[in-house]
């Protein structure tokens, strides 16, 4: 069953765009309702809580709302708004209109309009917690609300403070069996309490200079310079007291402070409780000299009382992810790559037995790479994985490794258990359907829609993705999607938007996007085509690996060959009105195309690469170029690879007008890559435009 065929008469969590234009434009896209952060499921699976955000262009305001919704009701009045926060979203709002979240030290009389909610977490079936961060004081407060009504007439109390941390906290989780609250917080090495970290933060702010000193890599990551602080897991016990209100029962404890090497957590949401709440499994990466050129991370097992954590998969493997306890707590399933220098290696499914400390590999001959794994029962696992433009959901038999798909269409995002049921709660979307929540039966994969955040985004203004297949380099099948403009007439001629994805180890999936949304181009009258050449994921590891030392080779050949086949098989595309657009690696390919092909009338390079050599010395994750170009540029043999595939070598051939977009806080491909591209174009008299963002990053 496709999303388009499913019922739309379902609860709407909030007002959608008031007067939606009958054309899908960038203005419409940025004003869509969207989820923010993770969705919380109540202990009995009867309700969910989620954060919804929306932006108003006219009002220049960002609204953040917290909702509770019943899972077993189709009545609209079973959706309850818990918090509603709105703020002027301009970079420099007038001082008179600046608004901050309520100070954590304010009185118990809470003004809910001053609470910007985040990280909802259920403390019980009738108590919901959420975090409010006060940017002025730097403190985080966990607030809670209680349900003082029956199933049919829910009435939620005003928020009350449960606990306050003197620093920002993230990844909040609560285990009702043990009464333990866990979260991550960045702390200075050697400190024993969060108060010590807050005190040192204040001391840092009193410095008369801003210098930062580094002795090892990496210095910065994505859009932030690395601080001396480590992100570590903290726990404390909560208890329910008067009027069913929760309060702390213990002090906050850093459960990995005494871990050898002081592991640095390398991902948010990277820890899980055992069902009994006595243990936590988490992913960590050890700070070391090779931090920037090795992906190695480990799954650690720790007691919530603060016993020293130990890795369950020591060795020289690659990145680990997605740990999950079995129901009885005796086993942990997780994903791990084998190659410690390759971020796009295939994820292997592994099960660790806590009792005998043995590890079993499941479905080792599977050619695809799962991105998430969990338990269905003692004999069956659950995985999500990318496969030919769809992110699928499947069950895996542990003994045989047999894969049984549950959902094979569109894109499954985050997956959450619904305890006590035989169903899951998932994020689900398509190119013509924004992300919403659905339940899915583990028996037959039946989908039931839960939310409809954007009911006015209807099929008459959004185009579905249709599959394409061409023959590319090495006679490989090149898969992709085509979107036609609304009211498409094959007898007319249309311009082409030829979109190239980043990564390069990623793919175009039939998913909704709030960034590179292909329907924006289709709605503007372009036939829009997005292809997955060599290097893309979802077509087997060999196809992904085929881009190594071939950046401007096989992928470029496949794209151009596919373009010619596209024009031959789709005569309504006007070959005199074609534009190519790409971001990140796609931006690299735009520069490469400009030096090797003049069939496009315009190009768009978003956060792309100009020089492979200069990029190596300015980027942060060195394992990426060292794998892609098979070495370091100061090695004579590898230097030839870098030089061979550098767009800078072919600047003299550039002729096509180009829009260059780059951002100051892009530390993956630094802003000089964009400035160099623009300089090379304009110095040669090639029409170009630079769009520069001083406060944005690689995304």
From TrEMBL:
One of its GO terms (molecular function) is serine-type endopeptidase activity. Residues 84-116 are annotated as: Disordered. It holds the Pfam family Peptidase_S9. Residues 512-699 form the Peptidase S9 prolyl oligopeptidase catalytic domain. InterPro entries: 6-blade_b-propeller_TolB-like (IPR011042), AB_hydrolase_fold (IPR029058), Peptidase_S9_cat (IPR001375), WD40 (IPR011659). This is Dipeptidyl-peptidase V. It comes from the Eukaryota. Belongs to the peptidase S9C family. GO terms for biological process: proteolysis.
């Amino acid at each position: 069953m496709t999303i388009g065929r499913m019922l739309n008469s379902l609860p709407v969590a909030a007002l959608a765009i008031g007067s939606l234009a009958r054309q899908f434009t960038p203005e419409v896209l940025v004003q869509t309702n969207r989820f923010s952060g993770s969705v919380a499921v109540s202990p009995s699976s009867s309700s969910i809580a989620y954060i919804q955000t929306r932006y108003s262009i006219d009002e220049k305001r960002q609204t953040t709302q917290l909702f509770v919704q019943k899972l077993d009701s189709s009545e609209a009045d079973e959706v309850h708004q818990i918090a509603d926060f709105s703020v002027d979203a301009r970079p420099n709002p007038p001082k008179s209109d600046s608004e901050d979240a309520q100070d954590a030290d304010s009185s118990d009389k809470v003004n809910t309009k001053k609470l910007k909610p985040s990280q909802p977490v259920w403390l019980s079936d009738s108590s919901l917690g959420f975090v409010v961060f006060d940017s002025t004081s730097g403190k985080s407060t966990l607030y809670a609300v209680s349900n003082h009504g029956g199933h049919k007439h829910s009435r939620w109390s005003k928020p009350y403070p449960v606990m306050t941390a003197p620093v920002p906290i993230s990844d909040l989780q609560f285990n009702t069996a043990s009464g333990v609250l866990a979260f991550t917080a960045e702390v200075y090495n050697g400190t024993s309490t969060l108060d010590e970290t807050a005190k040192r933060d204040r001391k840092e702010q009193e410095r008369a200079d801003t210098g930062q000193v580094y002795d090892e890599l990496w210095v910065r990551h994505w859009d932030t310079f690395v601080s001396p602080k480590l992100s570590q897991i903290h726990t404390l016990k909560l208890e329910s007291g008067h009027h069913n209100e929760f309060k702390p029962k213990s002090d906050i404890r850093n459960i990995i402070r005494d871990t050898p090497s002081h592991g640095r957590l390398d991902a948010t949401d990277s820890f899980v409780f055992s069902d009994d709440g006595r243990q936590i499994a988490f992913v960590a990466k050890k700070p070391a000299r090779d931090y920037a050129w090795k992906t190695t991370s480990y799954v650690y097992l720790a007691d919530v009382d603060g016993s020293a954590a130990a890795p369950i998969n020591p060795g020289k493997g690659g990145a680990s992810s997605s740990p999950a306890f079995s129901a009885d707590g005796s086993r942990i399933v997780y994903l791990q790559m084998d190659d410690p220098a390759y971020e796009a290696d295939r994820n292997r499914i592994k099960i660790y037995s806590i009792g005998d400390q043995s590890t079993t590999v499941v479905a080792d001959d599977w050619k695809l790479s799962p991105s998430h794994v969990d338990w269905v029962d003692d004999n069956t696992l659950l995985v999500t994985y990318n496969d030919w433009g769809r992110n699928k959901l499947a069950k895996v038999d542990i003994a045989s490794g047999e894969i049984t798909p549950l959902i094979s269409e569109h894109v499954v995002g985050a997956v959450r258990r619904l305890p006590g049921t035989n169903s899951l709660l998932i994020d689900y979307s398509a190119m013509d359907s924004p992300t919403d929540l659905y339940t899915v039966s583990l028996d037959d994969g039946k989908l039931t829609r839960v939310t409809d955040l954007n009911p006015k985004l209807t099929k008459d203004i959004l185009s579905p993705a249709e599959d394409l297949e061409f023959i590319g380099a090495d006679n490989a099948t090149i898969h992709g999607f085509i979107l036609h403009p609304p009211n498409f007439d094959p007898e007319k001629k249309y311009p082409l938007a030829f979109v190239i994805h980043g990564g390069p180890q990623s793919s175009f999936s039939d998913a909704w996007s709030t960034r590179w949304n292909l329907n924006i181009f289709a709605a503007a009258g372009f036939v829009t085509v997005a292809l997955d050449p060599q290097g893309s994921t979802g077509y087997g590891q060999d196809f992904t690996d085929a881009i190594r030392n071939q950046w401007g080779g096989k992928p470029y050949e496949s794209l151009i060959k596919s373009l010619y086949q596209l024009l031959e098989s789709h005569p309504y595309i006007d070959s005199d009105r074609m534009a190519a657009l790409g971001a990140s690696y796609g931006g690299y390919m735009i520069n490469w195309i400009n030096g090797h092909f003049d069939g496009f009338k315009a190009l768009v390079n978003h956060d792309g690469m100009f020089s492979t050599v200069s990029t190596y010395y300015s980027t942060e994750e060195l394992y990426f170029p060292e794998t892609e170009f098979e070495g370091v540029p100061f090695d004579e043999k590898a230097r030839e690879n870098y030089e061979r595939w550098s767009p800078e070598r072919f600047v003299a051939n550039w002729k096509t007008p180009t829009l260059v977009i780059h951002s100051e806080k892009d530390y993956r491909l630094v802003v000089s890559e964009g400035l160099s591209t623009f300089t090379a174009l304009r110095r040669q008299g090639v029409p170009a435009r630079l769009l520069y963002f001083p406060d944005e990053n690689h995304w």
